[in-house]
Amino acid sequence: MIIRSTAFIKSATHPGNYPEASLPEVAFAGRSNVGKSTLINTLVNRRGLVRTSSTPGRTQLLNFFDINGEFSLVDLPGYGFAKVPLAVKKDWGPMVRTYLERREQLKGVVVLFDIRRVPREEDLDLLDWLEEFEVPTIPVITKVDKISRNRRAAQVKPILEATGLPLEAFSFFSALSKEGREDIWERIEDALEL
Ligand code: GTP
Ligand code: MG
């Protein structure tokens, strides 16, 4: 993928304020702090396009970005962080579910799993919604630099068990080494039908 331009379009919470353009779209979802915003920045080679933070819960809205005037990437708010205000937590489910159900130009969702963590209820809910609304899913195991390569297979076992997905379904990613960047782009391009 050659990135010629990137631009923040807008933030939104509900269908009434989603951007109107009908360009194809791929969204990024996963637990707070899993690295969604970092993955988007790495994909588009722009360190500061999406704000990242070591404090979980940084992204609390749907954030839409235009790439090359050709398609959009959407940073979805993370879930599962205890310190996020209750009001925000309550909104997460309906906000994300409605987006997945109603956004017609949505072509796929990249779902991130931290290689060090066992998936929890919200992760599995998310996978269920994607199946329910027939949105193609691109599962990614991220922060793989945190685990040595020879421990990888053992480390991902709980993720495979919890999600019921086979190993081959996952791309592996590290923002440090950029491992997986090309592979994930290929899958996104396929989903976008570019
Ligand atoms: P929310 O917006 O809170 O939902 O978080 P997020 O999923 O957007 O996470 P974000 O991209 O802000 O990253 C969270 C932290 O993880 C930051 O400190 C990143 O630098 C770090 N991080 C993200 N990806 C990687 C990775 O592949 N390897 C390592 N070592 N750290 C990473
Ligand atoms: Mg974020």
TrEMBL record:
GO terms for biological process: division septum assembly. PROSITE patterns: G_ENGB (PS51706). CDD domains: YihA_EngB. GO terms for molecular function: GTP binding; metal ion binding. Its cofactor is Mg(2+). The keyword Hydrolase does not apply. Keywords: Cell cycle, Cell division, GTP-binding, Magnesium, Metal-binding, Nucleotide-binding, Septation. One of its GO terms (cellular component) is cytosol. Residues 22-194 form the EngB-type G domain. It holds the Pfam family MMR_HSR1. Necessary for normal cell division and for the maintenance of normal septation. Belongs to the TRAFAC class TrmE-Era-EngA-EngB-Septin-like GTPase superfamily. EngB GTPase family. This is Probable GTP-binding protein EngB. It comes from Trichloromonas acetexigens. The lineage of its organism: Bacteria, Pseudomonadati, Thermodesulfobacteriota, Desulfuromonadia, Desulfuromonadales. The gene is engB.
